Every structure is written in C-alpha cells, then in structure tokens.
Fold this protein.
Amino acid sequence: MAKWRGEPMEYVDQAVEYLRQGFGTVNDPKGLIIALAAVIFMGSWRQWLPISLVAVIIHIAIERLAPVLAGGGGDVTLPPIMEETFWTRVLVLFLGYLIITGVFFLIKSMFFRGGAKAAH
C-alpha cells in the first residue's frame, strides 16, 4: 500500500520537472519572441492550445533552418520524428509555450481591457 502512495507523487514530480524544463527552454530570446508574436495573434483563451502548438512548430522549424539561414552552409534536415527524445522535447516545448503564452496573454488582456474602459 505504501508503494501505491508513492507513485502518484512520482508522476507529479515528473510533471513539475517537465514544466520547469519547458519554461527554461522557452525562456530565451528566441522563445520569448516567438511567444510574443503568438500572443499578438491570439484573440481569446480558446486559441491558447492551438497557438501554443503553432509556436512549438515554429520553434522547431527555426532550429532546423538556423544553420542554413546563418550562412554556415548547412543542409535543411527533417526533425527525427521517429525518436522518443524528439517527442519528449516537443512536449517540453509545448508546456513551456503554454506557460509563456498564458502569462503574456493575461498581461495583454489586462492592459487592453483597462485601456478600452478608460477610453470610453
């Protein structure tokens, strides 16, 4: 019975670790710019999940195209979609973008609601 009590906490610890990794990964200039651009296009909380998913796709695309765009002569490669580590990274990025876009959209909605009321 004691083993059963420990398992849920292990899952909670793992989930919290994924959230920390996601926030840490997205909390760099590239991730913050992507999240800020995503929030500009976000009109309501119903778009939160799709916008965050699109931000992850853009993040991965930029990572893949960066060597080519930097002029390093690199080749465009596809992401390793058949590897578990890739999907773990996608999950971590998605969680990070959920956090960042949520915070940015909350700030955006607070400023624009207050500004619209003051203008009328």
